[in-house]
Amino acid sequence: MPEIEEETLETNSRDEMLSPVKLVRFQRRAQRTDSIEVLQRDLLRLYANPLEDFMDFWPKNPSDYREKMGRYTKEVRKLGIHLFGAIMESLNLGGATHLKENFNQGMHMVVANRYSPYQESSNIKIGAPPHSDHSIITILLQSSPGLQVLDMADNNHDHHNNGTWKAIPKLEASLQVFVGDHLEVLSNGIYKSVWHRVIPISTSNARISMASFHNFQIDEIVEPAKELIDNDRPKKFKGSSVRDLLKYASSQKPVRLIDTHRII
Ligand SMILES: O=C(O)CCC(=O)C(=O)O
């Protein structure tokens, strides 16, 4: 029997991806041969740039939440800006100040994921399904192992059905950095967004992760940089904004928006 996948978002606020704070139980249901399997995680999503505009919407409990989370988001944002500068240099786009300015003023979304303890026998499995991120880059902090990335070294990078899942170890005091879909577009396919999923290792302890998604401004159309288009490397993608990617993600289609925007 073919696998049917359906995702549901359980949330108080139905105005989807753009409310300043959202608490969600994210479930993906898949019809297996003789049962329905559910893949579940809980997440709290906050916007964080500009911090002054959003912090008043953040949780007040525990009482130092805003102060500590504010400090973390400020530091991780600085890191994101440094990394973006280095990536631009690697693409010989170091002089493209409009891109840097846009990134500096861009959208910063922070998602705290909680993967609760679970029983192996339950048909509710805990984890995150295979996906890539809408961001330019994502910076991830994780409490314990469970993250896996698809290694497509021997495959055509544009297809995500093949490849080998590789576990990413949790290294003390380290962050992971992912290339997101909009960097794949901006770099005209030179950087590839990372296909990843989560299968928590421990059934008895919760796993927590904090993903910081760094984007351009929400309505900025992201297209391949013109400096990276030539006869040898023609333009690979049509443009899209972060708003387009978020709206599309909430429509829960199995194909990435940037793949539907592929020109070649
Ligand atoms: O929990 C993780 O390690 C990854 C989370 C993730 O992929 C996401 O929030 O998009």
From TrEMBL:
PROSITE patterns: FE2OG_OXY. It comes from the Eukaryota. One of its GO terms (molecular function) is oxidoreductase activity. It holds the Pfam family 2OG-FeII_Oxy. InterPro entries: IPNS-like_FE2OG_OXY (IPR044861), IPNS-like_sf (IPR027443), Oxoglu/Fe-dep_dioxygenase_dom (IPR005123), Plant_2OG-oxidoreductases (IPR050295). Keywords: Iron, Metal-binding, Oxidoreductase. Gene3D superfamilies: B-lactam Antibiotic, Isopenicillin N Synthase, Chain (2.60.120.330). The keyword Oxidoreductase applies. Residues 105-216 form the Fe2OG dioxygenase domain. The keyword Lyase does not apply. Belongs to the iron/ascorbate-dependent oxidoreductase family. PANTHER family: OXOGLUTARATE/IRON-DEPENDENT DIOXYGENASE. This is Fe2OG dioxygenase domain-containing protein. It comes from Cinchona calisaya.
